[in-house]
Amino acid sequence: MKKMLMIPGVVMVLMLANPVMNAAQAQTKKKAQAAAGAKASPADIAAGKELLSTSDCLACHKVDVKLVGPAYIDVAKKYPANEANYNKLAKKIIAGGAGAWGDIPMSPHPALSMADAKKMVKYILSVK
Ligand code: HEC
């Protein structure tokens, strides 16, 4: 008889725990979506590639070979594709400077907008 009473009890506990578990799952899903949202859209990557080929970048950079500047695949290996790195590297492209890869500085690109520079970075960090 005691056993018979325990079964509904267990079912009740499971039913009560269910919304809590669902909330935790929703939280995890939201976090995953936010992380995915930081990923570059194919449109931005394509625009970045185009912008890059019409600027002076390829005079010093190649995708897979180090020239004056690091190969873009090496840049992509060093920095994970996320919003913080998009911003950091876009600023560096606009300001120029040395120190991350050696003593040779990158020329500044003051005419470049932050939005365009970020698209370029999204493309660069997508080559792997
Ligand atoms: C005059 C040569 C030159 C040109 C032109 C040039 N770069 Fe660079 N770039 C470099 C050098 C040298 C470095 C390494 C700088 C360092 O060590 O901090 C570099 C580094 C970078 C990095 C990595 C920065 C870091 O902090 O790790 C990115 C991204 C980059 N360049 C993108 C671009 C883009 C996009 C353009 C075109 C708008 C461009 N570069 C034009 C020479 C150049």
UniProtKB/TrEMBL annotation:
Pfam families: Cytochrom_C. Heme c binds at C57, H61, M106. Residues 43-128 form the Cytochrome c domain. It comes from the Bacteria. Binds 1 heme c group covalently per subunit. One of its GO terms (molecular function) is iron ion binding. Transmembrane segments: none annotated. Residues 1-23 form the signal peptide. InterPro entries: Cyt_c-like_dom, Cyt_c-like_dom_sf, Cyt_c_ID. Keywords: Electron transport, Heme, Iron, Metal-binding, Signal, Transport. This is Cytochrome c class I. It comes from Mucilaginibacter hurinus. The lineage of its organism: Bacteria, Pseudomonadati, Bacteroidota, Sphingobacteriia, Sphingobacteriales.
